[in-house]
Amino acid sequence: MLRLYHLPLCPFSRKIRLALAEKGLAFEPVEVEPWRAGEAFYDLNPAGEVPVLLDGELVLCDSNAIAEYLEEAYPEPSLYGTQLAQRAETRRLVFWFDVKFRQEVTDPLFGEKLLKRLKRAGTPDSERLRRGAANLHHHLRYIGALYEVRRWLAGDELSMADLAAAAHLSVLDYLGAVPWEAHEAARDWYARVKSRPSFRPLLTDRVVGIRPPPHYEDLDF
């Protein structure tokens, strides 16, 4: 069986959990806090980051490397699309959310509000929080614009682009940091992803001392 080392509210871990579920792959989840992990975990991934996937004796690190591996090793159903144009667009948008969105939104909001607390690394930086919240509006408008002209973010089929975007937004939604009321199209897209069976295990994740808003696990939003 596949084994996934993950942190429940890590967006990159969530992306892989969603991909595994969408492909119907059973896996053993192993929760780990990388900053408290011992040498055994660093032997698996010298970078000391999650997710890490074990497929037999094969050790896979980095969420994009893992996602690409799953697509090649377990090709059905495809999460990148069957047409070259959609596969290219999917990869472009995965990069958008895992790099641009992460730098501009996830790191300032999730990093300051939750990771600092988990790591006991001081108090949140109010200026970073302000910038992250402002940047989030731009990205939600972009998601809405894509969804208004496509069935899913990268085209006619659900793809890794949707899973990557939803993974990042889900951790922010847990913190009550997403202004859904101002972005109806993005909210409609997110509700559609959230209603999929693959998403439901994520909605049961909890962090001690932090309660998500009531709509967090409501499939009807």
Describe this structure in words.
The chain is of the alpha+beta class. It folds into 2 domains: 2-73, Glutaredoxin, CATH 3.40.30.10; 84-217, Glutathione S-transferase Yfyf (Class Pi), Chain A, domain 2. Helix content is 52%, strand content 8%. The protein has helices at 11-22, 39-44, 63-73, 84-119, 126-149, 160-174, 184-194, and strands at 2-6, 27-31, 52-55, 58-61. Strands 2-1-3-4 form a 4-stranded mixed beta sheet, with helices on one face. A hairpin with a 2-residue loop joins strand 3 (52-55) and strand 4 (58-61). It is globular. The chain starts with a strand and ends in a 27-residue tail after the last helix. The model has no long low-confidence stretch (mean pLDDT 96).
Helix content: 40-55%
Count every beta strand, where a strand is a DSSP E run of 2 or more residues. Answer: 4
H/I helix tally: 7
Distance N to C terminus: 34 Å
How is the biggest beta sheet arranged? 4 strands, mixed
CATH third-tier fold name of the largest domain:
Glutathione S-transferase Yfyf (Class Pi), Chain A, domain 2
Number of domains: 2
Order of strands, widest sheet: 2-1-3-4
SSE string: EHEHEEHHHHH
- Principal-axes geometry comes out as globular
Radius of gyration over all CA atoms, rounded: 17 Å
- What's the mean pLDDT score? 96
| Strand percent estimate | 5-15%
Low-confidence stretches: none
Q: What's the CATH first level of the largest domain? A: Mainly Alpha
CATH architecture of the largest domain: Up-down Bundle
Structural class category: alpha+beta
